Amino acid sequence: MNNEELYLFDLQGYLVIEGVLSAAEVAELNRLVDDQQLPPPAESIESQRFGGFLLWGDPFRTLLDHPRILPYLEVLLGDGFRLDHYYGIHMATNTDGLRLHGGGTPYEAEEYYVFRERMFNGLSVVTWALTDAPPGQGGFACIPGSHKSNYPCPEDILYFEHDPGCVTQVPMRAGDVVIFTEALTHGTHPWTAAHQRRSLLYKYAPKHLAWGRYDRHRNDAVYDLLTERQRRLMEPPYIPERQPIVGTEGPDGVYD
């Protein structure tokens, strides 16, 4: 990450990286989604989400460790980060979004942002836009800087009942990526564009941390299709090569 990107992420809690995917790559991902003939999205959040797409083709698996994105994750999460869980979002015209959630207060042990000479993030999200999200037409929304807030966000703001001007909808074009910390207060504005919204969310965590159940999003069928590096991203949470803090290692492998 260059100095501008470091500054903007620390300032805002998110960063947009433009044009990561080509038009041809976006078209192939959308074609593979179309092939699944997913039930149409409705008002419920559950109907707007879909999963399992790591089994749908190499283009989805390639996003796991995309060379443009890995360097950002290494800075944000440290070496040895892991995929915690993933899902897609599709929204039809005039469907409601998801209320705002997250934020620096109250502190969440799994969704945090801390700065001590460098930034430390808990669960963090890489969102791949497969369709345009034009200004003012819905999609990913957040309160920039709220990952460092010291007061809880009032409920009328969280539920979009009142906006004193702090909520921002983040425009994106198909092929763009937004990376954000889950400590950021974020959600989804109602979708008003004429076309369907489509995004793929890959959620990563530091190597020692899990937000979701480890076995929930993993199966042998996926594992067999992955490269060695991608398999390392699917490992359970642990601290590799952990050194003893007190005493020495006993014969049973437990530190005294």
Number of H- or I-type helical stretches: 7
- Output the structural class: alpha+beta
Question: Mean pLDDT, as a whole number?
Answer: 92
In the CATH hierarchy, the third-tier topology is known as: Jelly Rolls
End-to-end Cα distance, whole Å, is 41 Å
Going by CATH, the homologous superfamily would be: q2cbj1_9rhob like domain
Q: How many individual domains?
A: 1
Helix and strand succession?
Answer: HEHEHHEEEEEHEEEEHH
- Helix proportion range: 10-25%
Low-confidence stretches: 247-256
Annotated CATH architecture: Sandwich
Largest pleated sheet: 6 strands, antiparallel
- Secondary structure tally: strands: 11
Which term fits the overall shape? globular
CATH class: Mainly Beta
Rg for CA atoms: 19 Å
What spatial order of strands do you see in the largest sheet? 1-9-6-11-3-2
Characterise the protein shown here.
With 256 residues, the chain is an alpha+beta fold. Helices cover 20% and strands 20% of the residues. It has helices spanning 3-12, 23-35, 58-62, 70-77, 155-158, 220-223, 228-233, and strands at residues 14-17, 49-50, 82-91, 113-115, 119-121, 124-129, 139-142, 168-169, 177-181, 186-189, 197-205. The strands form 3 sheets. Strands 1-9-6-11-3-2 form a 6-stranded antiparallel beta sheet. Strand 4 and strand 5 (119-121) form a beta hairpin. The longest helix is centred in the first third of the chain and has 13 residues, at 23-35. The radius of gyration is 19 Å and the shape is globular. Mean pLDDT is 92; it is low at 247-256.
